[in-house]
Amino acid sequence: MKLVKRAVHLDFHTMPDIHDFGANFDAEKFARTLKDAKVEYINAFAKCNIGFAYYPTKIGIPHPHMKFDMFGQIVEECHKLGIGVFAYFNIGLDHEMARKHREWCVVNKEGQVIYGDRTANFFRMMCINSGYREYILSMIKEVLEKYPVDGVFLDSVVVNPCYGNECNEGMRQCGMNPLDDKDVYDFARERVIDFCKEVKKISGNDKFLYFKGLTPGDAEGLNTHEGVVCLPGAWSYDYFPAHVAYVRNLGRQTWYMTGRFHADWGDFGGLKSKASLENDCWDAISNAVTTFVGDHMHPGYGLEPAVYKMIGEVYSEIEKYEPWTDYAKAVADIGILAPTDGNLGENHLGVVRMLGELKYTYDIVNENMDISKYKVIILPDNITISPVLKKKLEAHLAKGRSIISSGYSGLNTEKTGFELDAWNMEYEGPDPWNSSYFKMRVDTDGDIPDMPCAIYNQGIFIQTREGVHSIADYYQPYFNRHWDGFHGYFYTPPEKYAGRPAIAKSGNVVQICFNIFTAYYQYAMPAHKYVIKYCLKELLHEPVIKCENIPSTARVTVTEKDNLRMIHVKLTHPEQRGRYNVIEERPVLTNGVVKLKGESVKSVYIAPNKEPLDYEIIDGYICIRLPEINGYIMVVVEPGKPNS
Question: What mean pLDDT do residues 147-158 have?
Fold first, then answer.
């Protein structure tokens, strides 16, 4: 299937009272605007979340002021210019059908079909276990039969537990209990997945198909592509790097859907800075995925020229890198374990932020994936060890490779003890303190202060056995933070060494007793990061990339394609401005150095202009002194013998 890249996701959720709908719309101009902006694919609107169709449907409800086939004209004109078109349907939202068919709505546990902020979007949702299922399936069939679209993009395909009569009856017929919340969720999930399978069947095998809202696990065998949908300013700038590190390992082409918006989807008047959009697109290619930019078209006037001027400028630059980015793969030393459903928590956001600041390469994987290529495995905070994972970790350790485990990670699934003999430690239950400390016993070159440092997020008690040495001691406070009827015990200084380790090393296994990655996401204390830096220096002696004079705010990644390795250095980073994170400038860096593992080099140059760079080979690394960087640079290393 063709690579989807330089795409635009076009929202078009249009209220019925827009009287001048399409008054100035010109499909030929629409397509030409996209072409001039270097757009290769457009996600166009067949049915929006209000419930209106934008083509002359015989099944659904056309927008009341639409006097022509807007969707059909878009497909025709875009195809003339070689732009692929996906048909967009919102599945979970359809406010027109919701008001006409209350029995098609999700009923929440309180018996409501309308709840929450009624000026927003998600105050009522559609139940797929109702007559709505056949209605929306018929619309999808109608579009697929009527138009030569390149694929279907289904939005808001989420599992919403429904306590309505039809769902309750369906659960009883299946032997499930309508009063058991888990059964209610499981029933809704089964119906959603069954619906998606039916869409897959009617779509055929030659079209793009994406169910936005399904978890990666539920989407297995359904999505032809995977996406990470994230407006960084709204989702946070930590969301994308963690989720892409997982999704890109699912075996399907992945794209990053960001947006031109400043605040959130539907932000008509919000246009982020060019540096901000560049940052997101650089993030995509640095992580071996393609780009998808969200927009919202004005219903009366069509595409906004200022928006596509900026998209065009950014996409023109991204296009130049494609000889090195199309079908590239990420290079990673470290594998971070995640649950098999792909749901990532603050522990994963924290470990990814740490490793990004420390300039280590990583993937996020689950126990069903291949972990044999990673030099270090990290089990962040709450990853217990199943029989499947046990076998893989034993093989990993047998190769002389390493594990970093924290909090409850490393325990068996019953949480009664450590699962692998390699830990060689005693598990002594959950940590009963809520204000405890750790103090390093080893030299960290001044990174970690020689004092008891706060744990912030407690985990478990551990004790060493013979042959295990303590990296850090556990210090208990005088008392827990609590209220005793007289005082609020907020001030809880460390009292004494508790006779147990906070961090211990057994062979190639390091166990940290507390939830260090969650704590870092919540508090960003440098000492926590430098604990991981120390552990990785001990366990990962020859990382694929080393850096000098590059700040913690920058991100350095490595990708590969054919016989080439690409080093990406991205300097743009968000600044907290009031209550919002903003990127406005391109930082400049001088005197940066990167060292790529390798001893044979044919050439080193800057993409896309192939300007050669000097290098030295020292101690098994290709040492490259970087030129001045304005925002971003891609350095290409071609291994082999130099040309004579």
Answer: 97
CA distances from 59 to 47, 97, 141, 439, 533 (A): 11, 12, 10, 68, 60
Interval 537-584: pLDDT, tens: 999 999 999 999 999 999 999 999 999 999 999 999 999 999 889 999
Which segments within 368-493 are labelled E, that is strand? Answer: 376-379, 402-406, 425-430, 437-440, 453-454, 460-464, 469-477
pLDDT band at 521 (very low <50, low <70, confident <90, very high): very high
Show the tokens assigned to 48. 């929006």
Cα–Cα distances in Å, from 46 out to 60, 121, 151, 292, 307?
10, 18, 12, 18, 22
**H or E element that contains 582:** strand 580-582
Token pair recorded at residue 522:
């919540």
Closest CA relative to residue 261, chosen from 289, 242, 280? 280
**Residue 363 backbone dihedrals phi, psi, to 5 degrees:** -125, 160
Are 60 and 17 contacting, i.e. CB atoms less than 8 angstroms apart? no
Q: Which of 5, 582, 554, 567 is nearest to 256 (CA)?
A: 5
Which residues are within 8 A (CB) of 484 and not within 5 positions of it... i.e. 6 or more apart?
none
pLDDT at residue 642, as a whole number: 75
Predicted confidence (pLDDT) per residue in 523-534, tens digit: 999 999 999 999
Model pLDDT, residue 12: 96
Q: How far is CA 161 from CA 183, 344, 435, in A?
A: 9, 21, 38
3-state secondary structure 356-374: HHHCCCEEEECCCCCCCCC
Backbone angles phi, psi at 342, to 5 degrees: 80, 5
CA distance 211 to 193: 10
DSSP symbol at 4: P
Say how far apart CA 578 and CA 381 lie, in whole Å.
32
The mean pLDDT value of the chain amounts to 97
Residue 146 to residue 462: CA distance in whole angstroms: 65
Q: Is 112 helix (H, G, I), strand (E, B) or coil?
A: coil
Averaged over 100-117, what is the pLDDT? 96
Residue 1 pLDDT > 90: no
CB 267 within 8 A of CB 245: no
Give pLDDT, residue 644: 46
Q: Classify residue 62 as exposed, middle or buried by CB count within 10 Å of its CB (0-12, 13-18, 19+).
A: middle
Q: What's the pTM? A: 0.96
DSSP secondary structure letters along 475-525: EEESS-S-B-SS-B-----EEEEEEEEEEEEETTEEEESS-HHHHHHHH--
What does DSSP assign to residue 126? B
Q: Specify whether the CB–CB gap between 239 and 183 falls below 8 A.
A: no
- 22 burial (CB, 10 Å; 0-12 / 13-18 / 19+) is buried
* Nearest by Cα to 558 from 286, 289, 372: 286
Q: For residue 608, is the peptide bond before it cis, meaning its omega torsion is within 30 degrees of 0?
A: yes
Nearest to 539 by CA among 363, 365, 360: 360
> Considering all CA atoms of the chain, what is the largest pairwise distance in Å, rounded to the nearest integer?
83
CB distance 112 to 103 below 8 Å: no
The predicted-structure confidence for 306-362, as pLDDT tens digits, reads as follows 999 999 999 999 999 999 999 999 999 999 999 999 999 999 999 999 999 999 999
pLDDT mean over 462-488 = 97
**What is the percentage of the chain residues whose pLDDT exceeds 90?**
96
> How much of the chain exceeds pLDDT 70, in percent?
100
